[in-house]
Design a protein that fits this description.
The chain is an alpha+beta fold. Helix content is 48%, strand content 15%.
Length: 81
């Protein structure tokens, strides 16, 4: 695995492990301005919103012991922590 991908995987794994909960959501059909506004408000409230690649998320979740059915993940996904 390339070093950049490994760093991304490690970052997502760490975020999952350090959170008490997370929400996985699709962000298709949301325009860029709305996404930026939501992310800004979410960060102000103490959260973090990460757009993640499904394959990287699935590997990170598996490394944390979280079992996710890949067939349930459609479109672009975001991880809200």
């Amino acid at each position: 695995m390339r070093q950049e991908k490994q760093l991304l995987l490690d970052s997502i794994s760490e975020a999952i492990q350090n959170s008490s909960a997370f929400v996985l959501t699709s962000y298709e059909k949301i325009d860029a301005n709305m996404t930026a506004d939501f992310r800004s408000d979410f960060v102000k409230s103490g959260g973090e919103l990460l757009a993640v690649k499904k394959r990287v998320f699935l590997k990170a979740a598996a490394s944390c012991g979280v079992d996710i059915d890949p067939s349930k993940l459609n479109g672009h996904i975001a991880l809200a922590i």
